[in-house]
Amino acid sequence: MSTELLVFVFLAAAAITTAVAMVLQRNAVMSAISLIGNFFCLAGLYLLLRAQLLAVLEVAVYAGAIMVLVVFVIMLLNLGDEEKLAERYGIRTLLAAGAVVLFGVEVVYLVMGTKITSGILPGHPDAAVIGTVESVGMALFTRFLLPLQATGMLLLAAVIGALILAKKRTN
Amino acid sequence: MSVPLPYYLGLSAVLFAIGVIGVLTRRNVIVVFMSIELMLNSVNLTLVAYSSFLGDVSGQALVFFVMAVAAAEAAVGLALVIALFRNKQTVNIDQINILKW
């Protein structure tokens, strides 16, 4: 067992554990903390895949910006006593279990059928070049220039929308 | 190369399934929101894995856009949660049914 596989197994186990903890926690703040741990595990997996830029962005954007917003909203709504929120486990749980089993079968079928033999593999020296700021930035500002500009408009619209939605009605 | 591609795809599938379970079973709207973030992340992992294994940077550019959309979604979604909480005094999605008839 190589070191890389060992690191992968550790990170994967941690990612699954934190994800399960996120769903099972009764307290919303504990859920948020578990999810932050999950994001750090995913950042580690991105590093294992030689995607340096995305590993940094994962921590900065997800674990930083988005989760701060979530924790801030939890604090703002003061959900301390929501732990006894009525959690029903009826038909929906059955539905969820069914969907997940179906999904699992499909995924196992697809994963077993995946055979990639061409291209650059992560061990290859060229693979380290793909995830750098330079190479991703070059793709973003040439091939994906229009989607990049559209993303800017989307973020502007989201900022305005969030302000209007969260603003108190004055009339 | 020491970690095969199906390992990453399998992990991503497991994370996505956990996110689906969270959305379908939890009643706290903020936890449902966080489960959606988890699903977005599992798809990101698939994209990065394929991008890395195929030696193509497009997958990572796509993950960049997914992150931007997730940030926009977080801002608008949480603003909606605040607006809903102001009107209904609850985050239980069973009690937020004004769009049902």
Provide keyphrases for this structure:
heterodimer; A: 171 residues; mainly alpha; Four Helix Bundle (Hemerythrin (Met), subunit A); 2 domains; 7 helices; globular; B: 101 residues; Helix Hairpins; 3 helices; elongated
Write the layout of secondary structure elements.
The complex is a heterodimer of chains A (171) and B (101).
Chain A: H1 3-24, H2 28-48, H3 52-77, H4 91-113, H5 127-130, H6 133-141, H7 145-166
Chain B: H1 5-25, H2 29-54, H3 58-88
Textual characterization of the structure:
The complex is a heterodimer of chains A (171) and B (101). Chain A is mainly α. Chain A folds into two domains: 3-131, NADH-ubiquinone/plastoquinone oxidoreductase chain 6, subunit NuoJ (Four Helix Bundle (Hemerythrin (Met), subunit A)), CATH 1.20.120.1200; 132-171. Helix content of chain A is 74%, strand content 0%. Chain A has seven helices and no strands. Chain A has helices spanning 3-24, 28-48, 52-77, 91-113, 127-130, 133-141, 145-166. Chain A starts with a helix and ends in a 5-residue tail after the last helix. The mean pLDDT of chain A is 83. Chain B has one domain (5-88): Orthogonal Bundle (Helix Hairpins), CATH 1.10.287. In chain B, helix 2 (29-54) runs antiparallel to helix 3 (58-88). At the A-B interface, helix 1, helix 2, helix 3, helix 4 and helix 6 of A face helix 1, helix 2 and helix 3 of B.
What structural category characterises the helix and strand content of chain B? mainly alpha
For the record, the CATH architecture of the largest domain in chain A stands as Up-down Bundle
Major β-sheet profile of chain B: none
The chain-level mean pLDDT of chain A equals 83
Rg measurement of chain A, Å = 21 Å
Quick synopsis:
The complex is a heterodimer of chains A (171) and B (101). With 171 residues, chain A is mostly helical.
